[in-house]
Design a protein that fits this description.
Strands 1-3-2 form a three-stranded mixed sheet, sandwiched between helices. The two termini are 42 Å apart. It is mostly helical and 372 residues long. A hairpin with a 6-residue loop joins strand 2 and strand 3. Helix 3 crosses helix 4, helix 7 (140-151) crosses helix 10 (230-244) and helix 9 packs across helix 10 (230-244). Helices cover 48% and strands 3% of the residues. The protein folds into two domains: 1-73, lambda repressor-like DNA-binding domains (434 Repressor (Amino-terminal Domain)); 77-244 and 316-372, no CATH class. Belongs to the short-chain fatty acyl-CoA assimilation regulator (ScfR) family. One of its GO terms (molecular function) is DNA binding. It comes from Amycolatopsis dendrobii.
Length: 372
């Protein structure tokens, strides 16, 4: 038996057990069955009303696939979300999946904070423009998008590498683990950093960019909003459309009819999908509702909802954490295992959080967010 187990049992942190259980996608009764305890006992361990014995700590670590040290308190407690995680659809996403996704995001922020002991990351620079979830007819989402473009000093025209832009302004962007790919892109804010989590299986450059802009909208506008509602999601869509395709710049370029050649050129120019352009044309009243519906019928009939015609650029990749780990390995001779231990995070989970998607590269569009 691990000689440190008695010490771990003494300092056992119930919050860390909750986190490990959520990461494993287990309910309390399922974990209780694995360690041959009652759900009441597991609840008591998590709440701090009862501390597990050394043998129980070992059983918990084995059941949850973490080292026993995972249950020790962190020097800096895990960040508490200051906004509810914004999942696209609460109906289609189970509570277990949402808890698992949220726990993963909290671990990612914690890993980032630990790495920042060794390297300097860009400071947080995210606008705050609260928008009521009751507001449906005003232009608040568009105003919020214009505010963020101004705060980030963006030049007129298309936005460049959006993931890198967010990272350069202090946002943490990571890919979710493939096992949690049923959850679409989501985000939440913490006192340390806002975080955007992307679906690793959505292999679509244009949709991913709209996802990032959509989640930035939630972070800017929805501090107190209940996530998952139709109005809230529509506001984030409108924010993303204005942020990526400012009305003053694109309205005169959009066709009133489904001119696919013209739309294809605009797609390449603005780095957005055909569907986003059609949505924008209708919302700016350049295109009538009837024309829009007919165009979307064509999109569906031709299978373009899943894959639009034309070349597909490589996905934009996060670079903040991957470059920091590479920098520490090369210049400080600190390996991944040592960093993972410092983060009290399983090595495979640490690698998932700090990696790019295998087999892909970042687009060569300006300098990446560089740790100092």
């Amino acid at each position: 038996m691990n000689s440190r187990l008695p010490d771990i049992a003494t300092f056992f942190d119930g919050g860390r057990l909750t986190l490990a259980r959520q990461l494993a996608g287990l309910r309390k009764n399922a974990l209780a069955s694995r360690i041959e305890k009652t759900p009441t006992a597991v609840a008591a361990y998590e709440s701090g009303l009862k501390r597990p014995a050394s043998a129980t700590v070992a059983a918990l670590a084995l059941a949850l696939d973490v080292a026993p040290d995972f249950f020790l308190p962190r020097q800096n407690q895990l960040p508490t979300a200051t906004t509810a995680p914004h999942f696209r659809s609460l109906r289609s996403t189970s509570q277990i999946s949402r808890d698992q996704a949220h726990a993963y995001g909290c671990i990612a922020v914690d890993v980032s904070t630990t790495i920042e002991r060794h390297v300097e990351f860009p400071e947080r620079n995210l606008a705050s423009y609260p928008v009521s979830s009751e507001a449906t007819a005003d232009h608040a989402p568009e105003e919020a998008a214009r505010l963020l473009r101004k705060q980030w000093d963006l030049r007129p025209g298309p936005v460049g590498h959006l993931v890198r832009l967010a990272e350069n302004h202090g946002c943490l962007v990571v890919f979710s683990p493939p096992a949690n790919a049923s959850v679409d892109a989501y985000s939440f804010d913490t006192p340390l950093r806002p975080i955007v989590l992307l679906n690793p299986l959505k292999n679509d450059y244009y949709r991913q960019r709209f996802d990032v802009a959509h989640e930035l909208g939630h972070l800017v506008m929805h501090v107190d909003a209940e996530p998952g509602g139709r109005t809230v999601e529509d506001q984030a869509h409108r924010f993303a459309a204005e942020f990526l395709m400012p009305a003053e710049e694109i309205a005169d370029q959009l066709p009133a009819k489904a001119d696919w050649h013209r739309l294809g050129l605009l797609k390449q120019q603005w780095n957005v999908s055909l569907q986003a352009l059609l949505y924008r044309a209708r919302s700016l009243k350049v295109m009538s509702d009837v024309t829009y519906r007919n165009a979307m019928t064509t999109v569906s009939n031709r299978g373009w909802r899943r894959r639009e015609p034309g070349p597909m650029p490589l996905l934009e990749q996060p670079s903040l954490l991957p470059r920091a780990v590479e920098l520490l390995q090369v210049e400080a001779k600190v390996d991944e295992a040592a960093l993972a231990t410092e983060c009290q995070t399983p090595l495979n989970l640490f690698r998932t959080i700090t990696s790019r998607i295998p087999g892909t590269l970042s687009l060569p569009d300006g300098e990446p967010a560089a740790p100092q």
